[in-house]
Amino acid sequence: MKIKPKLLKEKEGVSPVIGVILMVAITVIMAAIVAGFVFGVIQTPQATPTASITIDSISNSSGQMVLLHQSGDSLNVSDIDVIVTGLDNTTKTATKDLEEVVASSFDGSWDTGERVIISESDFGYGFTEGNDFEARIVHTPSGGTVSAPTATAQ
Q: Residues in domain Archaeal Type IV pilin N-terminal (predicted)?
């Protein structure tokens, strides 16, 4: 029974040394992370804008799809791609930079209440009456989808 107290008295604790090593390691790691942000090695991802966009109309006779910006952030047209997909599995998917599609009267920003008219000639296929279409609005700097409304061509 005397062995236990003797062993405990003779052993020195190593926890202070381990504690110091861990604190130094944590400090070095945190300094590296801060330096990465400061010197631009680590970049924060750009946020995807939030906007509610609907398909106002799709007309087979006029060959146009009208997209309405209902609410949310203004969208810089040079940062937006429109991907139109026919949901009937026979129509191809086509992507177009919104800046190429909008009229020259646009000021470079797609704001609430404004409409964008997309012609079927912009995508190389028609909006066949009765077919469903999706217009995916993609923010290219972040790679995120702003909106993906669907509608049926009339």
A: 12-86
* Nearest one of 124, 48, 116 to 82, comparing CA atoms: 116
Angle (CA) 52 97 79, round 5°: 60
| Cα–Cα nearest to 135, from 62, 86, 78 | 86
Q: Where are the domains of the chain?
A: 13-44, 51-152
Q: Which CATH class is domain 51-152?
A: mainly beta
- The model's confidence at residue 85, banded by pLDDT at 50, 70 and 90, is confident
Measured distance CA(26)–CA(29) in Å, rounded: 5
Residue type, 15: S
Residue 111 predicted with pLDDT over 80: yes
pTM of the model as a whole: 0.67
Beta carbons within 10 angstroms of residue 78's beta carbon: 13
The token duo for 37 is 């942000």
Of 11 and 72, more confident: 72
